[in-house]
UniProtKB/TrEMBL annotation:
The keyword rRNA-binding does not apply. This is Cilia- and flagella-associated protein 99. Residues 585-594, 637-647 have a biased composition (Basic and acidic residues). Keywords: Coiled coil. InterPro entries: CFAP99. Residues 202-232, 585-647 are annotated as: Disordered. It comes from the Eukaryota.
Length: 682
């Protein structure tokens, strides 16, 4: 669509205003909130732009920038990544608008109007961006490849690359003019007429001042020519890229393998450790029902063994015992506990002497209630077990019905799959024909590769020459700056030496017995201050000795208290051990046998379970197929595959557990090393 807006007679200020409006409407646009048409209409209404030609220009430029934003974004991102690192990010919409005008509207605007748009902005900024954008090599190589990711090859070649290459000579002239303006290159002035020469008076000239001779500055060494490797791409990049792709492929395969086998270690059977935990939990729950159990320590193993083997058992126990260090707080806490228990026993005996009632009847009733609760709980467990088996048999029957339905569905799906395969083969044949044609077109495009390589080599040689010229100019400037710095340093050295030649009086006398003379009440000399400090030190030493004696006395009293408490604790522990051993023997003699639980409800459940089981077995017998040779071979191959798969899974599981054990062992070793380090430091 051509712009109906005439730009031939517009001043530079009007070009600048139009460009600023296009950038502003693009800055305030948010595609998630409102549409393109609503946003541009609100903008024109808000800023009072009523001229029809100006409205059409702003609408067309804004719509085109939004439509082809992917193309302009490639150019702007490449500019910021390479040459525009010091350019503000807030100006990227300005570059997008200029890129759109150069790519899609240059034939309509012509060079005069486009040059006015460029001149309305900062010349340094525009020169840097346009020099990057109007590079023929970049347009025909990486820009073209990036544009073809979003649009077809024909559109990119005919609508973007070819029109822009036609305008490149005139655009290059514009860039050259901008560069001359930046460098302040002016035309050579005309030769003027010679004026009358003025001769100075013949008077005595003053004697010139002597200038210090600076140190000689080393000359530059002759530069080596650039190596040949500068003009060809290094081979390491291709190797690194190939290795990176291979590593990525392996990582993806390992991730897929790990995701596929992450549940391969599941084992429905409970391990020995799990069974022990379940048994320990059940034992703890059962022990909670014993309300009158005395809270004593466990019976030592050497008291439960016969007298003949007690000596060997005690010897082994002594060898395996780990010494436990009792702290002062633990000793006092346990002693206080035994004192409380003694007080409770004395109080209980006093109440019995006063005529309190015996609780043997209550204990008998309590044991009967516990036995009844245990029987009801066992019956409930048996009922739940039978119900679980019954639901299992019903699930098996339902699964058999589902298998029959699935067989019928599979036969229907096979027929449909055969038809789809035929259609797929036809489409694949058509695609192969298209691919052959595409390969022929690609081979035709590779013939111009040699010409492109020659142009690339000439371009690199030009870059090397420019870099060498810039290096020589920089070195000349550096030499001039070094000479000026050397002169400044020589003058500074002369001034410092003159200042050092002036003598200075640095002698000062101090009287230690005299005061400072400020007129204060607490004013004293240094000698008096030293005497008072010595007296204070002596007083502090006496106080320290007195406190040390008091601390030693308190420690001796505390040690005596701990020894008495330990003696009391040892007596109580001995009595508790004997009482626990006697109680254990009595329990072993009077332990009752468990009785079986059987009710009418359980009998009915067992009968239903037997009926369902018979029904399932009859259904299996009816659906069983007669074996043949092919099915037997296929079954055998499936069994072998299953065994191999299980073996590989178990090996993977064992390797995983070994790695886990190694990691745990390493963490334990590190924690032990850290603990030893902390102990040695403290």
């Amino acid at each position: 669509m051509l712009l109906p807006y005439s730009l031939t007679d517009i001043s530079v200020m009007d070009h600048k205003a139009l460009l600023e409006h296009c950038v502003a409407v693009l800055d305030s646009f948010n595609a998630d909130v409102q549409s393109v048409e609503n946003h541009v209409n609100k903008y024109l209404k808000h800023y009072g732009i009523h001229n029809e030609d100006e409205q059409i220009f702003i609408v067309e430029v804004f719509s085109g920038c939004v439509r082809y934003l992917d193309i302009m974004s490639i150019i702007v991102k490449g500019f910021y990544a390479r040459d525009g690192k010091n350019t503000l990010r807030s100006e990227q919409n300005l570059f997008i608008v200029l890129s759109y005008l150069a790519l899609f509207r240059l034939d309509e605007l012509e060079m005069a109007n486009f040059r006015q748009f460029v001149r309305s902005q900062d010349i340094n900024k525009m020169y840097k961006f346009l020099q990057f954008f109007f590079n023929e090599k970049s347009i025909t190589t990486w820009m073209k490849d990036e544009w073809q990711k979003f649009y077809e090859h024909v559109f990119v070649q005919t609508k973007l690359v070819s029109p822009l290459r036609q305008w490149l000579p005139e655009l290059s002239d514009m860039l050259q003019q901008m560069k001359e303006k930046i460098d302040n290159v002016t035309k050579p002035p005309k030769k003027a007429l010679t004026n009358t020469e003025i001769k100075p008076f013949n008077i005595t000239k003053p004697r010139p001042k002597s200038v210090p001779v600076p140190e000689p500055i080393p000359k530059m060494e002759k530069r080596k020519p650039p190596p040949d490797t500068l003009y060809r791409e290094p081979s390491n990049i291709e190797k690194i890229e190939r290795i990176r792709q291979e590593n990525r492929r392996r990582a993806e395969e390992r991730l897929m393998e790990a995701s596929r086998k992450q549940f391969a270690c599941a084992n429905p059977e409970k391990s020995q450790k799990t069974k022990e935990k379940i048994q320990r939990i059940l034992t703890e729950e059962q022990s909670k029902l014993d309300f009158d159990r005395p809270k004593t320590n466990k019976v030592p193993t050497f008291l439960m063994t016969p007298l003949s083997s007690r000596s060997t058992t005690s010897t082994r126990r002594n060898n395996q015992e780990v010494p436990v260090k009792m702290t002062a707080a633990a000793i006092l806490r346990e002693g206080f506990l035994y004192q409380q228990r003694e007080a409770e026993e004395i109080k209980k005996l006093e109440s019995l002497e006063a005529g309190a009632k015996d609780k043997s009847d209550f204990e008998r009733w309590q044991s009967d209630m516990k036995r009844r609760d245990l029987e009801s709980e066992l019956a409930d467990i048996e009922r739940r077990r039978l119900e679980g088996k019954l639901s299992h048999e019903e699930a098996i029957l339902a699964r058999q019905n589902i298998v029959e339905e699935n067989k019928q569905r599979v036969s229907e799906m096979k027929e449909e799959t055969q038809k789809m395969m035929e259609r797929y083969l036809e489409e694949k044949f058509k695609e192969e024909q298209q691919m052959k044609q595409l390969v022929e077109d690609t081979m035709q495009g590779h013939k111009n590769a040699k010409e492109s390589k020659r142009k690339l080599k000439e371009y690199k040689q030009k870059i090397v020459a420019e870099v060498a010229e810039e290096s020589r100019e920089l070195m000349r400037r550096a030499i001039e700056e070094a000479e000026a710095e050397m002169r400044r340093r020589m003058e500074l050295i002369h001034q410092i030496r003159a200042m050092e030649a002036v003598p200075a009086i640095r002698q000062k006398f101090v009287d230690l017995t005299a005061t400072s003379g400020h007129g204060l009440l607490s004013e004293m000399s240094i000698v008096e201050l030293r005497e008072r400090l010595a007296l204070l030190r002596n007083a502090e030493k006496e106080n320290e000795e007195m406190k040390r004696d008091e601390i030693l006395a308190s420690k001796e009293a505390k040690d005596q208290l701990l020894l008495d408490t330990l003696e009391t604790i040892s007596k109580h522990r001995l009595e508790q051990t004997k009482a626990a051993a006697i109680k254990l023997e009595s329990r072993k003699k009077g332990e009752p046998k468990k009785s079986s639980v059987q009710t009418e409800e359980l009998s009915a459940l067992q009968q239903r379970l037997q009926e369902k089981r018979q029904q399932r077995l009859q259904a299996q017998e009816g659906s069983r197929l007669a074996p043949n040779t092919q099915s037997a071979k296929r079954t055998k191959s499936l069994i072998d595959q299953k065994k191999n798969l299980e073996e590989s899974r178990w090996k993977e599981l064992e390797a995983t557990r070994e790695r886990t054990a190694q990691l745990i062992q390493q963490s334990y070793a590190r924690s032990a090393t850290r603990l030893n380090t902390m102990t040695s430091v403290t």
